[in-house]
Write a structure and sequence with these properties.
Elements lengths: L19 H6 L17 H31 L6 H19 L1 H10 L5 H35 L8 H24 L1 E8 L4 E8 L7 H34 L8 H36 L9 H13 L1 H12 L1 H12 L18 H7 L11
Antiparallel strand pairs: 1-2
Helix pairs in contact: 2-3, 2-4, 2-10, 3-5, 3-10, 5-6, 5-7, 5-8, 7-8, 8-9, 8-10, 10-11
Protein name: Neuropeptide Y receptor type 2
Family: Belongs to the G-protein coupled receptor 1 family.
Membrane topology: Multi-pass membrane protein
């Protein structure tokens, strides 16, 4: 899947001539119908789009920054799972800062105002962040699958986690690279209305849409279908294992924490999948030239893109709703408090009971560190 770039069509007529009105809209977030019939030029629609994108950016910056701050600030939050959650938040921050503002302006103006460098960097950055997000969700699912289903008490080390994240970002950069390489920034002349527009669009080899279609289909598999299949299998196995697990009463608290954390992480994946599904389907239909001539193509595309971008702020909301540690941490930040003793080792795979640690007294009143 490519980021919000709707320039996969060549915009050519059967005679081989290029329609200037299509070229005008052959850009990131723009497409037929032509300039004058574009409903996104209506003031009311623009106000709604600006409000929606601004809200997504604000919530994404606030929520993901809080997640990263808590994991960095509080030692008890530095578990392997939370480390990967911070990586997920970092990828979402990349979209909020480097992608959405430029996409919104380009959608409203139909002209790329940010120069050649950002023309290549913005689609690359969004594709990079989406790849990092889905790969990180896959790694989290497989790590929990390894520990819970196979009863492996030893978690990943910090060095192993850093190495996995480095590999994740490297793989994502390689997969997103075509969107930076096969891109063109040009000034388009439209003599009929005496207008010159700066355009940023995909330009695949051989001047055809075939390569773009192959890339989109490949990304649909690598960025959506295959990872979600792996994640679904892992969480189904985890859920069955926890549901059928029989343990002494002293271990019930630990099992319940595992169930809660697994439920939260599974819901994160479900929200990600549902947010991106309409966009993926519509993008594939566009690549196959099935919907390019819809009268309100650009508006529909933009709405689906907004739904997809909601995934960038949904995760912190889910953490605050379903995880006591994040909920307490968010409240502490808003209240300007600092009470690390309110954190509990939710989601850890090996923990001693809080009661036992309190009686022991060796932690000075602080909760045990989640492993």
């Amino acid at each position: 899947m490519s980021p919000p770039d709707m320039s996969n069509s060549t915009g050519e007529k059967e005679t081989g001539e290029t329609d200037p009105s299509i070229l005008l809209n052959d850009s990131l977030g723009s497409y037929p119908p032509g300039f004058h019939s574009d409903i996104t030029k209506h003031l009311g629609v623009q106000v709604v789009l600006i409000s929606a994108y601004s809200l997504i950016i604000l919530l994404g910056l606030l929520g993901n920054s809080l997640v990263i701050y808590m994991i960095v600030r509080y030692k008890n939050m530095r578990t392997v799972t939370n480390f990967f959650i911070a990586n997920l938040a970092l990828a979402d921050l990349l979209v909020n800062t480097l992608c959405l503002p430029f996409t919104l302006v380009y959608t409203l103006l139909d002209e790329w105002k940010f120069g050649a460098v950002l023309c290549h960097m913005v689609p690359f950055a969004q594709a990079l962040s989406v790849h990092v997000s889905i790969l990180t969700l896959t790694v989290i699912a497989l790590e929990r699958y390894r520990c819970i289903v196979f009863h492996l008490g030893r978690r990943l080390t910090w060095c192993s986690s850093l190495l996995i994240m480095a590999i994740t970002w490297t793989m994502s950069a390689v997969l997103a690279a075509p969107l930076a390489i096969f891109r063109e920034y040009r000034n388009e002349e439209i003599p009929s209305i005496n207008l010159r527009m700066a355009v940023c669009s995909e330009k695949w080899p051989h001047g055809s849409n075939r390569d773009g279609l192959i890339y989109s289909l490949s990304m649909l598999l690598l960025q959506y279908i295959i990872p979600l299949a792996i994640i679904s299998y892992a969480y189904i196995c985890i859920w069955v294992k926890l549901k059928n697990h029989v343990s002494p009463s002293s271990r019930n608290e630990s099992i319940n924490r595992r169930k809660k954390t697994t439920k939260m992480l599974a819901l994160v994946v479900v929200v990600f999948a549902f947010c991106w599904l309409p966009f993926h389907v519509f993008q594939l239909a566009s690549d196959l030239d099935l919907v390019l001539r819809f009268k309100e193509y650009k508006l529909i595309y933009t709405l689906f893109h907004i739904v997809a971008m909601c995934s960038t702020f949904a995760n912190p909301l889910l953490y605050g709703w379903m995880n006591k540690n994040y909920r307490n941490g968010f409240l502490m930040v808003f209240r300007c408090e600092d009470k690390p003793d309110s954190f509990h080792p939710e989601g850890s795979f090996r923990t001693r009971s809080i009661r036992g640690m309190t009686l022991n007294g060796r932690n000075g009143g602080h909760p045990p560190t989640a492993v």
